[in-house]
Amino acid sequence: MWHDGWQMDMHDIKLTLALPHQAIYKSQGVVQVNIPAESGDMGVLANHVPAIEQLKPGMIEVVEDGGSSKRYFLSGGFATVQPGSVMSVNAVEGYPLEDFSADAVRAQITEAQKVANGGGSEQDVAEAKIELEVLESLQAVLK
Amino acid sequence: MVFAWKSAGLSYNRYLAIASRVVRRSLKEDKRIIAERRGETDLRFAKWSNGKQGESKNLVDANSSAMAANAGSSS
């Protein structure tokens, strides 16, 4: 039957998820990768067309063989899909969701809001707005 | 499409550094302490022209003055 072959290797995509200091996945076969691209959230399966996507700070979900999925929050970077079901995701920081503290996120949102609405320099306000965007995205996925 | 960080005069590199810093600060205590050590950078550079080394500058200082100069001009 067709669905018996669904988890065969030829239907896997080889994922490398690398940070400057660590490789979370190293050319490992997985079923599906959902990424927060700037052009919109997208799911990548085997035999996807080649693509380069800039990533927003957000959650990446990796569906492994057997159907269990792992979720990480990335600080932003790039994903490339190459011919032959090969995918690379590069980001500066990335951690499993369970490594984050909801309290730390909440405290930083309060702090960043003060700066974003305060009378600081244009640069301070811009940085606070970036922080808010990241923190709100993080808070949404931690719920 | 113009990104908000770009119109504020920030480089993509700086934008990523800010986003990553805030991700590190959101970690649970034990992981945060290990991760935050990675965020510290200190680099000096000098521009060479006509075979002579120019003034040696701190990268962070040079970046922030360049950002202030670029603010609002890149729309």
UniProtKB/TrEMBL annotation, chain A:
Gene Ontology CC: one annotated term: proton-transporting ATP synthase complex
ATP synthase F1 complex delta/epsilon subunit N-terminal domain mapped to chain residues: 14-86
Coiled-coil region: none
SUPFAM superfamilies: Epsilon subunit of F1F0-ATP synthase N-terminal domain
Signal sequence, start to end: none
Keywords, ordered alphabetically: ATP synthesis, CF(1), Hydrogen ion transport, Ion transport, Membrane, Mitochondrion, Mitochondrion inner membrane, Transit peptide, Transport
The F1F0-ATP synthase subunit delta C-terminal domain, residue ranges: 100-140
Subcellular location: Mitochondrion inner membrane
Record Pfam families: ATP-synt_DE_N (PF02823), ATPD_C_fung (PF21334)
GO MF term set: proton-transporting ATP synthase activity, rotational mechanism
Main location: mitochondrion
PANTHER family: ATP SYNTHASE DELTA/EPSILON CHAIN, ATP SYNTHASE SUBUNIT DELTA, MITOCHONDRIAL
Family, as annotated: Belongs to the ATPase epsilon chain family.
Name the UniProt record assigns to this protein: ATP synthase subunit delta, mitochondrial
Species for this entry: Apiospora kogelbergensis
Taxonomic classification: Eukaryota, Fungi, Dikarya, Ascomycota, Pezizomycotina
Automatic annotation (TrEMBL), chain B:
Record's GO cellular component terms: mitochondrial inner membrane; proton-transporting ATP synthase complex
Protein name: Mitochondrial ATP synthase epsilon chain domain-containing protein
UniProt-listed CDD domains: F1-ATPase_epsilon
InterPro entries hit by this protein: ATP_synth_F1_esu_mt, ATP_synth_F1_esu_sf_mt
GO molecular function: proton-transporting ATP synthase activity, rotational mechanism
Pfam families hit by this protein: ATP-synt_Eps
UniProt family annotation: Belongs to the eukaryotic ATPase epsilon family.
Organism: Apiospora kogelbergensis
GO biological process, one term: proton motive force-driven mitochondrial ATP synthesis
